[in-house]
Design brief:
Blueprint: H1 2-116, H2 121-181
Length: about 180
């Protein structure tokens, strides 16, 4: 009986040891499972970070290309505006010269009269008023010529500017389509 008792005790100890080993293995398995989950979570975070980084790069590349295109179009536009202004100046040059010539002698004479001749204060005021009115008339005619110049330039530049803006929009759509394909 004692042997039976000893055998039962040995079996019980063996079972307890196996239960402890099984318990330790299960705990280790749970630890490995948690570690695997943490590693998978980290991997997913790295993937999303890589995707965000790639997206940021694509956006920066797109913005750079658009700025380059806008600079190219602005340079072309500035050149076109300068040419349009030169053309308008040439077109209005004769009329501007006529205005300048029409007032040049009158203004010179009034200024010379004010500087050279001694006058009574009321006569001086009358001549100064005449000079101011003449300068005002001349200024109004020059302003009218400038407004006409602006209309001539705008008539040429505005359609060109609209075309340039359309080219920029077309390039943006093209770049966007290329980015989607990649």
């Amino acid at each position: 009986m004692r042997q039976l008792h000893s055998l039962a005790f040995d079996i019980l100890i063996d079972l307890l040891l196996q239960a402890i080993v099984l318990f330790l293995l299960l705990n280790k398995r749970k630890g490995q499972e948690e570690l695997a989950k943490a590693q998978l979570s980290s991997l997913n975070k790295l993937r999303s970070l890589r995707q965000l980084s790639q997206q940021s790069f694509m956006e920066a590349d797109f913005n750079t290309r658009m700025v380059e295109q806008r600079e190219i179009e602005n340079a072309k536009l500035q050149k076109f505006v300068a040419q349009a202004e030169a053309d308008a100046d040439n077109q209005l040059a004769a009329r501007k010269k006529d205005v300048e010539d029409a007032y040049k002698l009158k203004l010179f004479n009034l200024r010379a009269l004010l500087e050279a001749v001694k006058m009574k204060p009321d006569e001086r005021q009358a001549v100064e008023k005449q000079l101011q009115e003449l300068q005002k008339e001349r200024g109004a005619q020059i302003a009218e010529l400038q407004a006409e110049k602006r209309r001539l330039v705008d008539a040429k530049v505005l359609p060109y500017k609209a075309e340039a803006e359309q080219r920029i929009r077309d390039m943006a759509q093209q770049q966007h389509a290329q980015a989607i394909q990649q």
